[in-house]
Amino acid sequence: MLNIKKEDFEQLEVLANEEFDLKHSTLQANDALSRYSNENQFNHCEFNEDIWTLHDETEKTNRHINYDNLSEILLTKTKYDLKTIVKCWAATLIDKGLSSRTITGKVNGLLQVVTISNGFSKDFFDSSIEYIKKSTPRSRLSLCNAALNFFDYFPYVDEEGIYTEKIWEIKSKTEKKIGIRELPSSQDILKFSMVVEDYFKTNLSDEHYRKYFCIYLWWNLTTIIPLRISEFCDIKRNSLIEVDDGFLLKLPRKKQNNRRIQVIDSILIPKRLVEAINAYKNSTDRYGNSSTLISYLSLPFQKHYLDQKINSESFDSNIFSYVLHDFYDEIVCKRYGFKIMEQEEVKAIEQGLSLNKVINRKIRPNDTRHFAFLNLMTQGYHPVEIARLGGHVSIYSQYHYHQHLEYWVDSEVMELMLKFNLNRNIGQHTKDIFDEKEFKEKFILRPSENKEVHIPLSIGYCTDPNQNCKVEDHVFCDAWRITFEEYKEKADIIMKKMNEKENVTKQLIFNLKNLNHIAIKGYKNDLHSEKNVLFNRELLETSKQLKHSLYQLAMLKEKVTTNE
User: Fold this and answer.
1) What does the DSSP 8-state code read for residue 226?
2) How do residues 254-286 score in pLDDT, each as one tens digit?
3) Which among 241, 250, 227, 237 is positioned nearest to 295, based on CA atoms?
4) Cα angle, residue 539 at apex, residues 533 and 544 outer, rounded to 5°
5) Do 174 and 40 touch, CB atoms closer than 8 A?
6) Phi, psi at residue 11, to the nearest 5°?
7) Cα-flanking dihedrals φ and ψ of residue 16, to 5°?
8) 291 or 225, higher pLDDT
9) CA distance 252 to 236
10) Phi, psi (degrees; rounded to nearest 5) at 248
11) What are the φ/ψ torsions at residue 269 (nearest 5 degrees)?
12) Residue 52: which of 108, 99, 3 has the closest Cα?
């Protein structure tokens, strides 16, 4: 086993919390550095100085970052100074509360790659990639994550995506080699989703409502529309705009400055979210002025939280992280009975533990941005349209997301499998739903709603009196059922059909990924642009086929999986 510590590379996500904007980012950086320097007498991080000192309290030593070499590197394609951009990016890591060891490791790693590549120049591409490849697995992942996070923060540095694409490939291969997942498992996502869905249907106390409404809105909004957590937190209090079709939500996108891709800064949102937002605003107005939609002053926090906030009229990503942590602790774990356990911990304890009660990894604030991008891909959106919705100035940022399409398909199947029944049962007594025995009894071999119809087939039976089957194979029909006794007898045949459907699904995934790859590479080409009707029809048709195949696969799995 390779000597890899999971926390070494999980602490820095590939996605950046912020996007670079000169005026906003330098102000934010100076504020973050000032707060950090005041935390400890040994910390010394001044934006205008090239050597930063970060104290490591655990090891009782000082760590350093030296930006001096960046003075000689120019970004010929932009008007910005590279040193300024990297310092602003480094300040976002400090502001996230990462350890000094992690911060200096990531920033110094990026500085190495920036220096070797001469500011990610095409002329130094081969030597830079070779340098990353020759690093140890731990260093390789650290360099890849740091570079990709920086690209997401400032996409202009790799406008043509040549570094992004190759570094993603290296990262993916390294993660597979050591068995690391960047995103939480589909089961972890679904358990969280079902808790959110159920919890906010209950009669919440005023305190819990004020504290956790941001979780409800974040989950329902950012899983559909790709928003950075900083963008979500910065949605303004008066962001709803009434139009003929309903209500638009104004998004806090950065000023575009004639960017190549014009991002979307207003979206039409469902009526239920409009009503929820208005009810929340009416409920929290009495706590004082708030420039942001989420009222910081209305949060029932203890004094030590309040002391950390400079601007009490705004909500921010650090406070959101506190709330999300508490939601997992107080609601997901204490109220719904889940345990947060790493995979290694699960393997080490007794077998009697119900795995349905275990969550291996918490969802992080920016994970939902991944989900939203992947969801748009599976709906057949052109990468340029996805970039607009996601606030991307460069289409090559899409490389961050279609790498995970296979993962999302697994999530889709799991979601369909469970939602067929859980939507009808989750309101009963949610804590008990995840009991192993009860789970099997409730959700395996879904009973027919039509008790009287039982038409025998070669495998199983039909519950539709008209036998109006719209598929070639009965096992993929909504009306198909099978008894447990017959399933045991014909399990091999059914599993063969399931495997065949999985192979079809995998091929459709490959086709959709390939179409997206073509669109990213050739979006300037008329044949593959967002305005080409034929190409967009191919994207849409492939996505429809994939959804249909997923639905059939999920239907079959839901009826026959024994969950053993």
Assistant:
1) -
2) 654 444 556 677 888 888 899 999 999 999 999
3) 237
4) 120
5) no
6) -70, -25
7) -85, 145
8) 291
9) 8
10) -95, 145
11) -115, 155
12) 108
Cβ count near 42 (within 10 Å): 15
Residues in the chain: 564
Q: At what angle do helices 491-521 and 383-390 cross, to 10 degrees?
A: 80
| 250: its two tokens | 């104004």
Within 10 A of 479 (CB to CB), how many other CB atoms are there?
20
Number of H helices, E strands in the chain: 23, 10
> CA separation (Å) from 87 to 25, 46, 115, 231, 308?
10, 10, 15, 21, 23
CA atoms within 13 A on the CB side of 410: 11
> Crossing angle for the helix pair 405-425 and 186-199, nearest 10 degrees?
40
Phi/psi-derived region of residue 161, left when phi > 0, alpha when psi is between -120 and 50, beta in every other case = left
**β-bridge mates for residue 250, sequence order:** 266
pLDDT digits (tens, 9 = 90+) for 289-322: 999 999 999 998 754 455 555 678 889 888 898 8
266 DSSP 8-state letter: E
Dihedrals φ, ψ of 297, to 5°? Answer: -65, -20
Tokens of 378: 């599976």
287 in Cβ contact with 298 (< 8 Å): yes
DSSP annotation string for 323-371: HHHHIIIIIIIIIT--EE--HHHHHHS-TTS-GGGEESSPPPTTHHHHH
Task: Tokens for 43, please give them.
Answer: 């910390």
**Cβ neighbour number for residue 348 with a 10 Å cutoff:** 9
- Three-state SS string across 106-122, please? HHHHHHHHHHHCCCCCH
CA distance 92 to 110: 14
Residue 104 structure tokens: 């200096």
* Pair 494, 560: CB distance under 8 Å: yes
**What's phi and psi for 101, nearest 5 deg?**
-65, -45
Check: CB of residue 508 under 8 Å from CB of residue 549: yes
